[in-house]
Design brief:
The protein is about 45% helix and about 15% strand. With about 350 residues, the protein is an alpha/beta fold. The chain has a single domain, classed as Alpha/Beta hydrolase fold, catalytic domain (Rossmann fold, 3-Layer(aba) Sandwich). It has an eight-stranded mixed β-sheet, sandwiched between helices. α3 links the parallel β3 and β4. The protein is globular and about 60 Å long. About 45% of the residues are buried.
Length: about 350
């Protein structure tokens, strides 16, 4: 199991402590942990809305799902988070909740992530095949409940791997796919990212980072080594183009009413725990070889400053992909976290794609 706490985790936990001291937030925060109803301007519940937290058994494992939409007859949008092991539900809820006015948004905490984190989980079930089949089961459950034939899949980073596997297996269930930080050839992407990071450390005159990265060496890496590289990637702006201040990041997470105090420790334990079991398989993933064609509309949302997952490789994969409709959309001021780094443009593009697919009218 990885022994490093990781720069990102130190950054987050430090921000939590700072926020408690500055805002006296603990007493208020402990009271949270449920999702609010949709209300009209007078505070009355909106008829036909859906705002529900539930546990769904997928692949024999209970997994947390949050469903939110102002109109339960709206198109279904399933959010497949990254990591592995990093629930991004709170950040989407903070930055992109306006999508709930146009879709029924399904936020899923994958096995081993977020509220679904459980160290008693059999680690042999943490595989691309099993977790992509969890997604397929979720798609079927949601389609049946809401009486719709297809869903719009929105996936980020690691989640794009699961989404591609589902699309290849069950294209008839997918109205369209939006991939953010699309994984293609992971090992080649890691090599590209490492070369950029070492060059950036040298160009900035950062001797500590330069020495550490030279000692680390290029991929392939163990899970521990990948986490070490990600520490430096975050610090040198290869993850976010402009990293948020720790207290602002924490405020965003705590601003979402579904976040209870008991969620925080598992939230930040889950990613290194999951990575130790999934990294070897993830590092050798190759979308060029696995998916030269997909029978669904494919849209890739790419941050120009993303050095965690190569946007250039994603664009190259899309160029050779045989698909009924495909488009690459670039965000010039964003890195790996497009929905949080440029929310207005991201939200606008998701709605534009949905209109293009005939899912929404306005």
């Amino acid at each position: 199991m990885p022994t490093r706490s990781g720069g990102k985790r130190k950054f987050i936990l430090g921000g939590i402590a700072a926020m408690f001291v500055a805002a006296g937030g603990f007493a208020l925060w402990t009271a949270r942990g449920s999702t609010p109803a949709f209300t009209d301007p007078n505070g009355a519940p909106v008829p036909g809305a859906v705002a529900e937290e539930r546990w769904i058994e997928l692949g024999g494992v209970r997994q947390y799902v949050l469903l939110r939409g102002r109109d339960r007859t709206a198109p279904l949008l399933i959010n497949v988070h990254g990591g592995p092991g990093m629930s991004e539900r709170a950040l989407y809820r903070y930055h992109n909740a306006m999508l709930e006015d146009h879709f029924v948004v399904i936020y899923w905490d994958q096995r081993g992530a977020g509220k679904s984190f459980d160290t008693s989980l059999d680690p042999t079930t943490l595989t691309i095949d099993r977790m992509s089949r969890d997604l397929s089961e979720l798609v079927d459950v949601i389609r049946a409940e809401f009486g719709q034939d297809k869903v719009l899949l929105l996936a980020h980073s690691w989640g794009t791997v699961l989404a591609l596997e589902h699309i290849a297996r069950r294209p008839e269930t997918v109205a369209g796919y939006i991939g953010i930080g699309q994984v293609t050839t992971q090992l080649e992407s890691e090599i590209e990212g490492y070369n950029w990071l070492l060059g950036e450390a040298e160009a900035r005159g950062e001797p500590t980072a330069t020495e550490a990265l030279r000692a680390l060496g290029p991929p392939p890496w163990t899970a521990d080594q990948m986490l070490e590289e990600r520490d430096w990637l975050y610090k040198l702006n290869g993850f976010y183009a402009k990293p948020p201040a720790p207290i602002n990041y924490i405020r965003q997470v705590l601003a979402t009413p579904e976040t209870a105090w008991t969620d925080i420790a598992p939230m930040f334990k889950a990613m290194p725990w999951s990575i130790q079991f999934l990294w070897d398989e993830n590092q050798t993933y190759d979308a060029f070889a696995r998916h030269p064609s997909l029978d669904a509309p494919i849209f890739l949302l790419l941050g120009r400053h993303d050095h965690a997952v190569s946007p250039g490789l994603a664009e190259a994969w899309l160029a050779q992909l045989d698909a009924p409709l495909k488009e690459a959309i670039w965000y010039e001021t964003a890195g790996h976290m497009v929905p949080a780094e440029d929310p207005p443009a991201f939200n606008r593009d998701v709605l534009r794609i949905a209109r293009q697919l005939g899912l929404i009218a306005n």
